[in-house]
Design brief:
- The chain is mainly α and 127 residues long.
- Helices cover 38% and strands 0% of the residues.
- It contains 4 helices and no strands.
- It has helices spanning 2-30, 36-39, 65-72, 75-81.
- The structure holds heme C (4 copies).
- One heme C binds at residues 37-38, 41-42, 47-48, 63, 67-68, 70-72, 102, 106, 108, 127.
Length: 127
């Protein structure tokens, strides 16, 4: 009987520890909100942060473009959508062709900013 009580007490402690850790993890997740356009369609961090792309076991690094393209189609397909802008096509550019990383411009957890405008002043409406 004694033994069972000790076990129960130990189990209680483990639960308490787990419960104490949970809110901290939840707060962490909340600080990595996705963009409005992804809120309804993306149901979890692993849609972008895959184990396949992990660095030393950590999946929470800048995701590979492959992950974006798995839903948005090829670079060429994207470039077709932005061929008729008044400004140069960001998806097929003078310098980089279709080779520049999505996250050079589109951000997920912060405000996006067109990399081109480090040097130019293009009027993009970057989503
Ligand atoms: C699980 C599928 C999925 C993944 C992964 C994904 N997206 Fe999306 N994304 C969508 C859907 C669905 C929409 C809303 C419909 C649309 O506009 O295409 C969207 C919307 C967007 C928009 C806004 C488009 C607009 O017209 O306003 C941008 C920009 C975008 N995604 C970029 C990215 C980038 C960059 C990545 C990779 C870091 C990414 N997405 C990963 C599915 C995905
Ligand atoms: C050099 C900056 C830049 C890079 C790199 C870039 N984009 Fe974009 N993207 C833009 C801009 C600017 C727009 C909005 C153009 C506009 O309508 O003014 C846009 C628009 C989009 C849209 C909405 C297209 C539409 O009209 O329906 C999607 C989706 C998108 N980008 C996804 C991606 C993905 C995925 C990648 C990587 C494969 C990528 N972008 C790389 C700048 C970039
Ligand atoms: C739609 C794709 C997408 C989803 C979903 C997503 N992220 Fe991200 N994450 C990114 C991109 C893109 C970056 C690169 C920095 C940025 O764009 O803000 C990033 C960067 C990060 C980083 C920093 C990595 C570094 O080395 O700078 C962390 C941590 C992170 N995300 C955590 C999360 C968590 C936690 C979730 C789930 C609540 C999540 N992400 C969901 C796309 C995504
Ligand atoms: C590091 C600075 C820098 C960045 C970043 C940059 N450019 Fe440029 N760009 C230049 C310079 C310098 C020139 C003129 C020399 C040349 O043509 O390469 C130029 C020229 C151009 C031209 C030709 C202009 C003309 O009148 O013929 C286009 C179009 C252009 N850039 C588009 C882009 C786009 C789109 C991006 C983002 C995907 C971008 N640039 C990013 C510096 C930059």
């Amino acid at each position: 009987m004694k033994k069972i009580q000790t076990l129960a007490a130990a189990f209680g402690l483990i639960c308490a520890a787990a419960m104490a850790a949970a809110p901290a993890a939840a707060a962490d997740m909340a600080s990595f909100k996705v963009q409005k356009h992804h809120e309804k369609v993306i149901k979890g961090c692993t849609f972008c942060h895959t184990q396949e792309n992990a660095v030393a076991g950590n999946a929470f690094v800048v995701p590979d473009d492959k992950q974006c393209m798995s839903c948005h189609g090829t670079y060429e397909a994207l470039a077709k959508k932005t061929d008729k802008l008044d400004e140069p096509n960001p998806h097929r550019s003078h310098h980089y062709g279709t080779g520049i990383s999505c996250t050079a411009c589109h951000k997920e957890h912060s405000k996006p900013a067109a990399y081109c405008n480090e040097c130019h002043e293009f009027k993009y409406k970057l989503p």
